[in-house]
Amino acid sequence: MDVILLQLLNGLDKGGAYALIALGLTIIFGTLGVVNFAHGALFMLGAFCAVSVQALLTISKKVKDESITFFDAYKEVPYLEAWWGDTGSMIIDYAVPLSIVIAIPLMLLLGLGMERGLIRYFYKRPHAEQILVTFGLAIVIQELIKAQFGANPIPTPAPEVIAGSANVGLWVGLGESVVYPWWRLIYLAFAGVIIAAAFAFLNLTTYGMVVRAGMADRETVGLLGINIQRRFTIVFGMAAVIAGLAGVMYTPILPPDYHMGMDFLVLSFVVVVVGGMGSLGGAVLAGFLLGILQSFASMNEVKSIFPGIDQIIIYLIAVVILLIRPRGLLGRKGVMET
Amino acid sequence: MTSFDDSKTRGLTRRGVLKAGTALGAGAVITPSFFVRNAWAEEFRNNPGNASSVKFGFNVPQTGAYADEGADELRAYKLAVKHINGEGDGGMMNTMQPLALKGDGILGKKVEYVTGDTQTKSDAARASAKRMIEKDGVIMYSGGSSSGVAIAQQSLAQEMGVIFMNGLTHSNDTTGKDKRRYGFRHFFNAYMSGAALGPVLKETMGTDRRAYHLTADYTWGWTQEESIKNTTEALGWQTVNAVKTPLGAGDFSQYITPVLNSGADVLILNHYGKDMINSLTQAVQFGLRDKQVNGKDFQIIVPLYSRLMAQGAGENIKGIYGTTNWNWSLTDAGSQAFVKSFGQEYGFPPSQAAHTCYVQTILYADACARAGTFYPPEVIKALEDFEFDGMGNGKTLYRGADHQCFKDVLVVRGNENPTSQFDLLEVVKQVPASQVTYDPSIFGGELGPYKV
Amino acid sequence: MFSGLTTNDKRLFIGFTIAALAMPLLAWPVGANYPDLLQKFAIYGIFAIGFNILFGLTGYLSFGHAAFLGVGSYAAVWMFKGVTMNVIPAVIFGVLVAGMFSAVIGFISLRRSGIYFSILTLAFAQMSYNLAYSVLTPITNGETGLQLRQDDARVLDRLFVDRAEGLPSTNLFGLEMSGYPGFYFCCVLLIIAFFISLRIQRSPFGMMLRAIKTNQVRMNYTGFNTRPYALTAFIISGMYAGLAGSLLAVTDPLAGAERMQWTASGEVVLMTILGGAGTLIGPILGAGLIKYFENIFSSYNDIMLSESFSFLPDFLNDTLVFVIGPFVGEGWSLLLGIVFMAIVIFLPGGLMEGLTRIHAWYRRRGSGGTPTAGSASSSQAAE
User: Fold this and answer.
1) Above 80 in pLDDT, residue A65?
2) Are A315 and C121 in contact (CB under 8 A)?
3) Any chain B CB within 8 A of the CB of C161?
4) CATH code given to domain C7-261
């Protein structure tokens, strides 16, 4: 029983990550009709917001290690610690949560800049060309990050207080055997909040209503005298923020490196398409579904019956769903079908 | 067709020309009339002949997950070329015993080099190596960071008749079932990791342990799992489970949670690079390092360590055992000389990947000098069963039967109290070569012929 | 053989043949005249031509074509291991196996269109890759890649010659398939592949495929079942991929799983779009450009740069090396990314569009006309 519960938690956690990345991607698909291969790069840039904040906070006074003579080896003492002692260490410790504050405006600006500077010229172009230009952009972004931060993953731990595990078992009456890391639980909650907020924004506000109307019929909305173009720009910025936040929050789980965007890119496309083109709910549903199934497929009991099933489960599920439901889980007719 | 010869780079070799000649139906009869100064007046691919220089090819990952490791390897190669040519302070050429190099290049020829990107993919690595051989005319090429890529390049070496000096490759297969006459490995392998870890594990964790393996699901992972299992089971440990994980899984939580309540008290991570960084980070996050099972402290073991991986895993490596081929903190004369010249050149200490690449380059150059020729079969014979010292791992044997170096192996532990940003690994024990030596026949394989 | 082709097509084909055969000479000024890269040009040219038959004509964007390339490679190497080192059976077997594999995948994937089709093909290719890397190791030799071994059966060869010391090499009735002979073998197949593609594009079948791209729904309403046509195109292009894959094995008998990874599928998509989807020559140009970047620009290091600018004064040399350095060697993918963006921004329609424009400009200059075509309106010109 505890094994099932743990795998369910793993699945929800993974699903949260998939859903968050897919959400931004599907918003861009749905509103702008753009196949954005640079979406993974936005996710990665979010993660590197956390890396940068951590690097800024840990700018260090360097104490030379005199025992080493061939090169300069330093024991690094961050200035924050040197000046403020424990308070300083605590600020450094909270680098990842702090970077959320930085990441929101930064990713918004990046998203707006990207849309204004490049993406908007490609609305009317064939999807193939959108793929080429955004893929090129993704490579450029990722190589710039590599030039700055190197190719090696960079550790970005969660704050010390929540580094441990929560006794989830006690909460549900399963005893002490079910523990789960706090940060992963926080990630799950965070994903839930962001998804809810995005839904609320698009479904409950007038602004969101106009955007959705624009998704359905851009020309008519334009005829009504509404500047749909500007709203789309802002929506793109919003999608960038969501991807970026997903990245920031993921850093304690996966030490970020310049290639992590590409690693998630294919997966997020699969999630979006399985969810169904043009459907936000579908993307979220598909994210959680694939995450949970992936977790259960990795169990030893399952693997002993189907060796290697955990290697292909995501794709297998995608094939099965797309064959049963022609437009994914909740896809709309006619979106990206040609 | 010979008219396409790029005179600047000696694009076509005589061998190539002859082949092309055959292609045109000329049916040329090969006569070994090519004049070289040496006694072995044999024709071979990329024979430098009377040229004043020879070219080496350094084929390292410059893009992809191992790009940083590749960059460090390249630094070491450049340094080695400098030292062979008599520039710089000479590094380990001052400590190597015996040494035939004179610091004036090899056999009076200066060494030049070309570089390439393997992308850590077999196809790209072979394409890059072929460029070096066919276009740039290299006499030897070298590089590494992945066993699959190393084995692919090594078999190319045999086909092409150009010697390949392996960089970082740890799979038993490289000098086991996939060994080649034209491939040489200085780096240690999974079997030696296991053999070296054994006594230390016994000392620190006892003989009554229950181990759980997470293994990267490809050949290197399997050979390491097998080697470590053999060692630990010989100690009396039980193997609770051995689970294969997909390469590049990213999030390993679904493989880690079953460990929690499996009754295991040791987790062995047969992962390398990014996989290892991720799985270790996440295992620690799940509280495995602070756990008590069966009345014992839960332990995590990473059989193959590297400094770059230690950097990526950050705090999580503290106190975790593993093995490495070499570490810059060693105090023998060879290591000191190398760390000194590398440190002065680049401002930081070399990694184990850099060390093995540097040593391989010097060893090849020295073998040419001893053989008195660049003719590969003679160079190979000079390397086979060559014994040397002063290269950082104590007395070392390049065994002729499988082209594997036998030398001391370091058992290390993640440093609890580093004195500097480079002081990540602490050497627990230097296991002597005699304890990690094995019978070459256990892995099978065939080296193949000297002449191709 | 040439019946039904216009004079222009004949000229194009003859020009192409000459250019392909003279590739070593043409590649000489840019330093690409060594057998391996020339082989890669020809092989990936075939791959891209085949991909273009599906994508360029029908508009179906497959994101899993590398799977067929990989399967072709594995099949060819198994032929070398099991039967004979002669390349002819290996190539035929590779093409057939890839054809059958693509028939199965195409049959399933073509039940959907648009991006759903793309993801289905992607999913199949990724499954093939993941399994080949791990569970299917007995067949594929996993990470290390399928290689020839001393103790392979090679039943047919055994009948005629004894087992020699060392590994045998691939051959065409005794002619070794490495180096330039290997290139010319690939080159001849490239020319044949191009010719078949030309015939397909000019045939009623090609018209049908274009009609699928233009408006599949309308086709269906007129009572026309388009799927058999799309499936035929899919299989043909899968066989092209299989041919390319088996040629990779012919010139270098090793087949690795990475050949099937999504990045490899993505690469052929990029090649085709970069060159100009739907055009005859474009995909080959795109393939050449990407392979050239991958092999040549990655090999530049500061020393080589500095040598190539050695005619300049020192400070200029240093500046140039400093400016160019980050874009070559380890930075070659950065350059590639920039080139992707630049081409698609300035040349909608790919490299072929560039050639068309140069041609048009040249002609205009001759006749003194004024430029009229805007970039947006000409984006479909490459069709």
Assistant:
1) no
2) no
3) no
4) 1.10.3470
Closest-CA residue of chain B to C245: B123
| Residue B385 burial (10 A CB sphere; 0-12, 13-18, 19+) | exposed
Record the pTM: 0.90
Residues 347 to 376 of B: which have CB under 8 A from any A CB? 347-349
**Cα–Cα separations (whole angstroms), residue C336 to C113, C276, C296, C339:** 30, 17, 12, 5
C307 touches chain B (CB under 8 A): no
Do the Cβ atoms of C24 and B4 come within 8 Å?
yes
Task: List the structure tokens of B162.
Answer: 């150009």
CB contact under 8 A, B347 and A65: no
* CATH number belonging to domain B53-188+328-407: 3.40.50.2300
For chain C, what are the domain ranges? Answer: 7-261
Closest chain A residue to C55, measured at CA: A128
Instruction: Report which secondary-structure segment, H or E, holds A76.
Output: strand A74-78
Question: Cβ contact (<8 Å) for B258 and A151?
Answer: no
Number of structural domains found in chain A: 1
pLDDT band at B26 (very low <50, low <70, confident <90, very high): very low
Q: What is the pLDDT of residue C363?
A: 85
**What is the domain class of B191-324 according to CATH?**
alpha beta
Q: Are C235 and C102 in contact (CB under 8 A)?
A: yes
Residue C130 burial by CB count (10 A; 0-12/13-18/19+): exposed, middle or buried?
buried
The type of residue at C131 is L
Q: Which domain holds residue A56?
A: 2-324
Residue ranges of chain B assigned to CATH 3.40.50.2300: 53-188+328-407, 191-324
Q: How far apart are CA C112 and CA C63, in angstroms?
A: 14
At A130-157, the pLDDT tens digits run 988 999 999 999 999 999 998 899 999 9
- Contact at CB, C169 and B159, closer than 8 angstroms: yes
pLDDT of A173 higher than 50: yes
Indicate whether A181 belongs to any domain.
yes
Task: Tell me if C127 and A133 make a contact (CB, 8 A cut-off).
Answer: no
Q: Which residues share a beta bridge with B184?
A: B165
Which of A10, A69, A177 is nearest residue B261 as measured by Cβ atoms? A177
* C-beta atoms of B64 and A257 within 8 A: no
What are B77's two structure tokens?
């190669």
Contacts (Cβ under 8 Å, ≥6 apart) of B267? B211, B212, B214, B259, B283, B288, B298, B299, B300, B301
Q: What is the pLDDT along chain C (383 residues), one digit of tens a residue?
A: 677 788 888 999 999 999 999 999 999 888 888 999 999 999 999 999 999 999 999 999 999 999 999 999 999 999 999 999 999 999 999 999 999 999 999 999 999 988 899 999 999 999 999 999 888 988 998 888 898 888 888 888 888 777 777 788 888 988 888 889 999 999 999 999 999 999 999 999 998 899 888 877 777 788 788 889 999 999 999 999 999 999 999 998 889 888 999 999 999 999 999 999 889 999 999 999 999 999 988 888 877 777 777 787 888 888 888 888 788 888 899 999 999 999 989 988 889 888 888 888 888 876 654 444 333 333 333 33
- What are C267-271's contacts with CB under 8 Å, separation 24+? C267/C66, C268/C44, C268/C47, C268/C48, C268/C51, C268/C65, C268/C66, C268/C241, C269/A128, C269/A131, C269/C51, C269/C55, C269/C61, C269/C63, C269/C65, C270/A132, C270/A135, C270/C340, C271/C44, C271/C47, C271/C48, C271/C51
What's the rounded Cα separation, in Å, for the pair C344 and C356? 15
Euclidean distance between CA atoms B123 and B145, whole angstroms: 15
Q: What is the pLDDT of residue A145?
A: 94
Interface predicted TM-score of the whole assembly (ipTM), two decimals: 0.90
A–B: how many Cβ contacts below 8 A? 141
Q: Are B35 and C192 in contact (CB under 8 A)?
A: no
Q: Answer yes or no: is A140 within a domain.
A: yes
